[in-house]
Structure formats: C-alpha cells, structure tokens
Amino acid sequence: MYLLAGIFFAFVYGVIGELDDSGFFAQKTSARDVDYVYFSFVTLATLGYGDLTPRGDPGRMLAVAETLLGQLYLVSVVALLVANIGRTRPARARDPGPADG
Q1: Of 45, 55, 65, 84, which is least surrounded by CB within 10 A?
Q2: Structural domain contains residue 26
C-alpha cells in the first residue's frame, strides 16, 4: 500500500507539472519522471530534504496531504505491530477427517 501511494502521488505530481507551464518544481523548469517519484517518496516518508520543492499552491497542498497520509499509515502499521508483539496464536480445533469417525 505504501509503495502504491507513493507511485500514485508521483503520477499526480507529474500531471500537475504537465498542466502548469512553469513546471512543478521551483528548482527545475523541466522535470523527469524520476524526479516526481523521488519527491513523492521523500514527502511520503517525511524526510524533507528540500532539494525539490513544489512551485505552486496545488503541488504544495498535495504534498501536505501526502505527508499526512504517510504519517498516518506508518503510525497505524507500527501500532499494529506493537499491539501484536507477544500475542500467541489461538490453537485451531482439529477438523475430524474421514479416518477419525
């Protein structure tokens, strides 16, 4: 899910970049697909290197949404993992086969 979210946001950033004549990034006038993927995963993981930043408001707002989604996803996954530490699996009832009965 995490990888799909990053790729989805990269696609949306690319669409915004194609629709905007001045480009998506403030640092580049023309961006490659790998730039959008890189920016998406840096944003999703909330690393925030700052080497690429969105030029316009739609890109900025989408980056904020991606950051919040990334944090909520990671917090949920970590919470599930911590909640299940030390929990044992319940024993399954044995299904009687044809030889048993």
Answers
A1: 84
A2: yes
